[in-house]
Design a protein that fits this description.
With 293 residues, the chain is α/β, with parallel strands linked by helices. 45% of the residues lie in helices and 18% in strands. A hairpin with a 2-residue loop joins β6 and β7.
Amino acid sequence: MQRILFYIVYAFLWVISILPFPIFYFVSDCIYVLVYRIIGYRKKTVRANIKLTLPHLSDKEVLQVEKKFYHHMCDMFMEMIKTMNISEKEIKKRFTFTNIDVFHEYEAKNKSVIVMYAHYASWEWSIALVPYAKYTCFGIYKKIKNPYFDKMVRDIRSKFGGFLIDTKSTVKTIKENESKGILGVYGFISDQTPSLSKAKYWNNFMGHYVPIHTGSENLARELDMNVLYMKVMKTKRGHYEATFIPITDDAKSMPENEITNRFIREVEKQIYETPEYYFWTHKRWKFKKEKAQ
C-alpha cells in the first residue's frame, strides 16, 4: 500500500516539477490559499512565534509578516519539488554565492568544513554549493519513516553529487570519514530545538532563553574542523543569494559555546532584517525559560 501511494504521489510531483516557472509559481499561489486561508496550517503557532520574538511589531505588521511567510513557505516547498528536474545551470542561476572564494579558502586549509545555516530563506536549494566544492559534500537530515518517500528526499537532495547522513548516524559517519582521511563539507541546519533530555546548553535567542543545539560545534572542536556560516537571502521570487561568514578556522582554541553563540547571533540578524523568510511553523520556543537559571 505504501508503495502504491508513493508512486501516485511521485507521479503528481514529477508533473509539477516540469512546469514552466510562471505556471509553477501560480500553482504555489493556489497552494498558499489552501494552506493559509482554508486549512490555516499551524497559523496559531506562526502568529504566536512572531508576536513572541518581535514584540515591537503592531498587529497589522505581524499579519503582514505572517502572510509573506506563508507565501514563501509554499514557494520553498514547491522549489524542493522543482529540484527533481532542475538543471545544474538553472539552479546556479537561481542560487548564487557572493563570495565563493571564502569557501574555497577554508577548503584550502586542508581540514573538513562545517557549513552552519538556519531554517531561513532556502535550505533546499543550498545543494547548489555541491558543484563548487572540492571536497565531498554531506547534508545532515532526519530520516523519514516511509522508506519510499525517504529515498525520494535523498535523491532530490543528493541530485548534484552530495550525500545525506541521517541524524542518528552523523557523529559515527563523520568520525569514520576523518579517521580515513576523507575531507568533507558538512551542512548543518543548526537552529532546531533539542529535546529537553538533550538540552545541554541554553542561551538567549530572539529575546528568550532556550535550549540550543551544540552538535556541530562539538564535532568541530573535537575534530578540528573549519566552520562557516552560510547566510542565505531571498533576492526575489525563486532567487537566492548566499554569503559565507567565517566563524573559525581554529575550532580547538575557541571558548566553549562560542561557535554556537556566533551562529545564533548571525541567525538573529537575518530574522530581524527580514522576518518573513524564517521558518515560523517550528515550535522553536516551546521550552523557553523566563530568565537564565
